Amino acid sequence: MRHILLVEDNELNRDMLSRRLIRAGFTVAFAHDGQEAVDGVPKENPDLVLMDLGLPVLDGWEATRRIRSAGWNGPIIALTAHAMSGERERALAAGCDDFDTKPVDIKRLLAKMTALLPAG
User: Fold this and answer.
1) What gap in Å lies between CA 9 and CA 12, rounded to an integer?
2) What is the pTM of this model?
């Protein structure tokens, strides 16, 4: 079973998305802010990180940069409700592998996750 670290500060978003991921066969761990994400990656050793960009304490862009600089090379998909021009490029430049918008289209997100996760 694949393990996901869901980095999301909004409780309703966390609940909705985690239920859908669990139904799709994933286990899910949570981080509520960017610093928890940075600390949680080595602890949780996820197969993939879903990273909200608009986070308290440490935003998703900086959290991603720190996770990458610490040497973690697993896939990170940025999630944001603010899909303004340039956001995708900014997320990719920070070290994300892909980008998706909220509200989440679960089929689209699962397809992106499948494409990034190694077979197995």
Assistant:
1) 9
2) 0.96
